[in-house]
Request: fold
Amino acid sequence: MRHANVEYQGLVRTATADPDGRLIGDDGATLDAAAVRWLPVSDGALFGVALNYRGLLEARLPEFQASPYEKPPENPVLFIKTPNTRNAHQGAVVLPRGERLQPGPALGVVIGHRASRVSEQDALDHVRGFTVVNEFSLPEDSYYRPAIKAKCRDGFCALGPWWVDRDDIANPHDLALILTVNGVEKQRGSTADLIRPIPHLIAELSEFMTLNEGDVLITGTPPGRVDVREGDQVDITIEGIGTLSNTIVTDHGGEAK
Amino acid sequence: MRKARIQYQGDTLTVAVNDDGYPLLADGTALDPDQVIWLPPATGTMFALGLNYADHATELSFAAAPKEPLVFVKAPNAYTGHNGRSWRPNNVEYMHYECELVAVIGKTAHNVARADALDHVAGYTLCNDYAIRDYLENYYRPNLRVKNRDGTTPVGPWIVDRDDVPDPNDLRLRTYINGELRQEGTTADMIFDVAFLIEYLSGFMTLSPGDMIATGTPKGMADVQPGDVVDVEIEGIGRLRNHMVSESDFFRNTEE
Reply:
């Protein structure tokens, strides 16, 4: 089953999408798709993992042997997408003036119940489902300091359109991720190439920090990030989950919404 | 005025705190501060500063003070309240406290100029931004394994209204382990002050009410061990107590 948070006729409600893509509201009525405003699938904390795809780390190994890194990472390279970054399906993403903006296709793991110190074996019991994440970022030329400026801008983490029940995804480690910009494929990867698979990540993170219900684990972006421009339509499709669409707009200054 | 969040008789309450540190119920009844559970007074994102005191940067062997703020982020799982417990992992060499002034955002801030920045501050609290040196890897440093550990950032006890702190840039900070003074400094030595940091952060992202900016710590680090009582104190703000426990004690009592 696919579950969404939407605003419809002035009300925030939960909905499910049937196999034909029709949205059914929590009162059983069919929602008019054109009148729906999609909301982020979760309001929990958003934890990201960098350098979690094969090929990404290998490409940088010579650099990571040198200063300031001294050696390749031994633990998951983690970051936080702050609450202001939450965005939804069909939301606009602002390209900051004078900067480059890159989408980040990623499989999102939605936590279903509190995970503290869970084993790899039990980790998936704590997962509610999966969603599509577009983890927008300015290009990163360094992994030495926390990437707040690159990753924590308003609207830089789109999640949706919905989350899919865990048991509906037979193997979360064999899903194609495809990025298209204005309908043209620009980036492709597979969750088969995750360096740290999902149970491993949950076990490793929950050793020192609790993952709470509604938190989302952003499992990483495959190699090959591309730049996007004003007016671009950016779609990420993850096999078996759905397609998350966003448009790029320019920062004209002034107050935030 | 000082405001705290407490748990009392099963309810979570936002209460005023009197000059003697007693939480007050709405009807004016003063509660025994040892008979309530003190919660973190704010629960938004915490933006924490690294190397924001020149003497601490030197202590950590950094040749030059940073030219741009070094900011990292904490999520609410990291916070614990006044009189709470934090844990020292087994088999680590060095875990130290960091006494820090925290500005709490009271009004949404986006592209705010330095001159207007303090209009967006509700008040001030303090935190103890514990760090575990053993876990400092050179990736997104300081990383989440050092700085976003469960219950390892005590915050509180309360928020003092902004207008009751006439000069946040001239406050003494002190840390005590088991009553013995171990760290002392002044917020006058901060490299980037609260107003600057609000301008800086709000220049590329929106700050929301309840978000916190932890402004860094002066020099004077020392190791802490299970059993230690660690108090961080800032003149005019308050004194925040934390009880250090071992890893096994911490998780023995929190797991259902």
